């Protein structure tokens, strides 16, 4: 809608036409219309307060297979501005205090109204991670997972909190406008009460029961969708989000590309990019990118997670408190829970671990990633590193890359979806140190090694897998670096391997899905605290800069580690050093790949064929299984896996030949 459009008063003839078509007004003098206004498109409308009307140059509006006459029919308008080529029909109570842009379609709605000073959900406090509210964050239209992470998890830095909240409050105050807005091409069909809700461009609301105090960000490239039965209070929905099928939300943020469906219930929770939630419940949850829960009996409560997959019946319990709900849990990225997994908070589970059974001993396995945490005779036991050889890990890496469905021009969350990163590699290094120490203290581990209330089994195997994974990762980063460089001499190559930054060294953090050096994050925090950054936009730009620089920072970390392993700086490396690193990576990769292949074969073992060949298993079981599941060789995931490995093998061979030519 053109906000500079000129308006005029109604002509007497136009008023008479409107009256003849069942219209009336509290004061006809308060109605203004566009120059090309045509009253024939308005029937049975009552006007109250200041009303501005556009013009109709289209006789019909069409949305997919639906085609309806444009115009205004059977409603009461109070203090509204309506753009061109709009269809509004059958608003049962009132449409009040809204600006409605061009080609909006509103039909069969109980009520659509706005208060004069609403912030549309912005500024609502959501008690994430910890139910006592001491980690509450203000919901905000442009909230990123990184900003939310700082607000929720850095309460030990009050100056930082005050500064971010101050910057955010400035933006929230700007959201206070005297009228609501429904932007161009939005569709609002068959809904109940909608009150104090901003509705973005091309958004679709179809069958929602009640929406109060919220914002629905939407873009023509990535429309938001609110479907049947939805009840939402104090909420923010982002571009590409889909909330439907009787979902109930209270004080929630739903990020770009996320879907909530099938009677899912959430309160005081945030769901960032590409989350998928259905049927269960979430209370005080910080769900980072790619978190998934799809089972009716699953309860997520008072915790932080990302790249998480909840098995059916997963239960996170924080009800054993004495002085209030202070307990909380951390699932580092990539954790999965098996069916009926139960964890009593507080607990912290290491990245890419699998949790099976009941655990009430408050485990902290953060330095032992890729582990199996299992229950044995009522006790928690841990098998470190075993998930590294789970073929499902490869499938996860592939699916995350495919499931980033965000299409909005600006992506709010900066997400690194790689499994192996410096953040994970540093965890592996700590795991190696820890297991080395424990195995030296417990040379005979037949009955397990006691560690923080749980028992560790197969520690030597875990050490072996961790070492292979670390070699494989560092080698793969080196391969990418070498493969991207054009060099004509060893001196030339050394120059190009010398990092352009030195800030990637040391510890790394997972900041709401963004993997970044701790030192760089610390610099950002100090700049915020010391008011060297004066807008939220500038903070988000810094996050995006970190995201774009990830590869350079990653190489700086890997280079530092390889220099430590070789005992000399990159400018002292020779051809043999480089070849030895490549060969070590190739050998480690072969060991892990072989183990992953063996794991994949378990899916095709005879015991997995039970239930096939239903009427004559003895004769047709194998044929039926193969017809449905194929073979390990023709499985598409295995084929893609093999293709990538073959390409990597050829790249290593080519690089070794190229390096040998430098002698």
Describe the structure.
The protein has a 26-stranded mixed beta sheet that branches. The protein has a 6-stranded mixed beta sheet with strand order 31-34-36-37-39-38, with no helix packed on it. It has a 3-stranded parallel beta sheet with strand order 29-32-35, with no helix packed on it. The chain is built from 13 helices and 41 strands. It is 31% helix and 27% strand. With 663 residues, it is α/β, with parallel strands linked by helices. A hairpin with a 2-residue loop joins β36 and β37. The chain is elongated and about 95 Å long.
Q: How many β-strands, per DSSP? A: 41
Which percent band covers the strand fraction? 25-35%
Average of the residue pLDDT scores? 93
Largest sheet: 26 strands, mixed
Return the structural class: alpha/beta
Count of separate DSSP helical elements: 13
Radius of gyration: 30 Å
Low-pLDDT segments, ≥5 res: none
The percentage helix is 25-40%
Write the layout of secondary structure elements.
Blueprint: E1 7-9, H1 12-20, E2 24-25, E3 31-34, E4 42-53, E5 60-63, E6 66-69, E7 71-82, E8 87-91, E9 95-96, E10 98-100, E11 105-113, E12 125-126, E13 137-138, H2 145-153, H3 158-174, E14 180-182, E15 187-199, E16 204-206, E17 210-216, E18 225-226, E19 231-237, E20 242-243, E21 248-254, E22 259-261, E23 265-271, E24 276-278, E25 281-287, E26 292-293, E27 299-305, E28 309-310, E29 315-317, E30 329-331, E31 336-337, E32 342-344, E33 347-349, E34 354-355, E35 358-359, E36 372-376, E37 379-383, H4 391-402, H5 422-441, E38 449-451, E39 454-456, H6 459-483, H7 490-497, E40 508-511, E41 514-517, H8 518-529, H9 536-548, H10 550-566, H11 575-601, H12 617-629, H13 636-660
Parallel strand pairs: 2-4, 3-4, 4-7, 7-8, 7-9, 7-10, 8-11, 9-11, 10-14, 11-15, 15-16, 15-17, 16-18, 17-19, 18-20, 19-21, 20-22, 21-23, 22-24, 23-25, 24-26, 25-27, 26-28, 27-30, 29-32, 30-33, 31-34, 32-35, 34-36, 37-39
Antiparallel strand pairs: 1-3, 5-6, 12-13, 36-37, 38-39, 40-41
Helix pairs in contact: 3-8, 5-6, 6-10, 6-11, 11-13
């Amino acid at each position: 809608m053109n906000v500079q459009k000129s308006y005029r008063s109604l002509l007497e003839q136009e008023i008479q036409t409107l009256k003849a078509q069942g219209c009336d007004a509290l004061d006809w003098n308060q109605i203004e219309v566009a120059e090309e206004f045509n009253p024939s498109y308005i029937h049975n409308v009552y006007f109250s307060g200041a009303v501005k009307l556009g013009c109709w140059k289209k006789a019909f509006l069409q949305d997919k297979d639906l085609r309806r006459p444009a115009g205004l029919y059977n409603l009461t308008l109070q203090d509204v501005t309506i753009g061109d080529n709009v269809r509004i029909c059958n608003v049962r109570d009132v449409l009040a205090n809204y600006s409605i842009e061009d080609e909006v379609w509103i039909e069969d709605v109980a009520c659509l109204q706005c208060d004069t000073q609403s912030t549309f959900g912005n500024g609502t406090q959501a008690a994430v991670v910890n139910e006592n509210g001491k980690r509450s964050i203000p919901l905000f239209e442009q909230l990123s997972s990184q900003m939310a992470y700082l607000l929720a998890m850095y309460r030990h830095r009050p100056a930082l909190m005050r500064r971010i909240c101050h910057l955010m409050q400035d933006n929230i105050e700007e959201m206070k406008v005297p009228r609501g807005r429904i932007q161009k091409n939005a569709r609002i069909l068959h809904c109940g009460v909608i009150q104090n809700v901003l509705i973005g461009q091309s958004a679709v609301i179809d069958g929602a029961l009640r929406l109060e105090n919220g914002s629905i960000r939407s873009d023509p490239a990535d429309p938001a969708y609110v479907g049947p039965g939805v009840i939402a209070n104090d909420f923010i929905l982002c571009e590409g989000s889909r909330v439907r099928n009787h979902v109930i939300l209270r004080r929630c943020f739903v990020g770009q590309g996320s879907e909530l469906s099938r009677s899912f219930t959430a309160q005081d929770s945030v769901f960032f990019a590409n989350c998928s939630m259905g049927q269960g419940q979430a209370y005080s949850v910080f769900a980072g990118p790619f978190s998934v829960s799809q089972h009716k009996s699953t309860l997520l409560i008072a915790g932080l997670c990302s790249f998480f997959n909840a098995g059916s019946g997963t239960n996170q319990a924080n009800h054993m408190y004495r002085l209030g709900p202070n307990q909380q849990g951390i699932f580092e990225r990539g954790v999965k829970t098996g069916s009926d997994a139960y964890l009593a908070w507080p607990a912290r589970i290491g990245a890419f671990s699998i949790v099976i059974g009941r655990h009430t001993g408050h485990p902290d396995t953060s330095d032992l990633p890729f582990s199996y945490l299992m229950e044995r005779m009522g006790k928690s036991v841990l098998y470190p590193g075993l998930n590294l050889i789970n073929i499902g890990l490869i499938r996860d890496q592939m699916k995350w890359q495919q499931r980033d469905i965000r299409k909005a021009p600006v992506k709010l969350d900066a997400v690194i979806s790689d499994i192996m990163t410096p953040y994970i590699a540093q965890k592996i290094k700590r795991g190696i140190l820890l297991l080395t120490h424990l195995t030296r203290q417990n040379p005979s581990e037949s009955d397990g090694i006691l560690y923080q209330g749980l028992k560790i089994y197969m520690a030597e195997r875990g050490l072996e897998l961790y070492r292979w994974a670390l070699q494989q990762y560092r080698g793969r980063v080196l391969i990418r670096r070498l493969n991207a460089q054009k060099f004509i001499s060893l001196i030339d190559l050394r120059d190009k391997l010398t990092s352009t930054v030195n800030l990637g060294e040391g510890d790394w953090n997972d900041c709401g899905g963004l993997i970044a050096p701790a030192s760089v994050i610390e610099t950002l925090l100090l700049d915020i605290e010391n008011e060297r950054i004066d807008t939220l936009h500038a903070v988000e730009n810094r996050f995006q800069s970190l995201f774009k620089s990830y590869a350079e920072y990653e190489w700086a970390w890997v280079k530092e580690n390889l220099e430590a392993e070789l005992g000399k700086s990159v400018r002292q490396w020779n051809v043999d050093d480089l070849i030895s690193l490549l060969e070590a990576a190739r050998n480690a990769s072969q060991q892990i790949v072989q183990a992953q292949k063996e794991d994949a074969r378990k899916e095709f073992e005879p015991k997995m064929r039970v239930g096939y060949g239903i009427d004559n298993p003895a004769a047709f079981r194998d044929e039926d299984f193969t017809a449905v599941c194929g073979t390990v060789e023709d499985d598409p995931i295995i084929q893609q896996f093999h293709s990538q490995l073959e390409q990597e093998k050829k790249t290593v061979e080519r690089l070794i030949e190229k390096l040998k030519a430098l002698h």
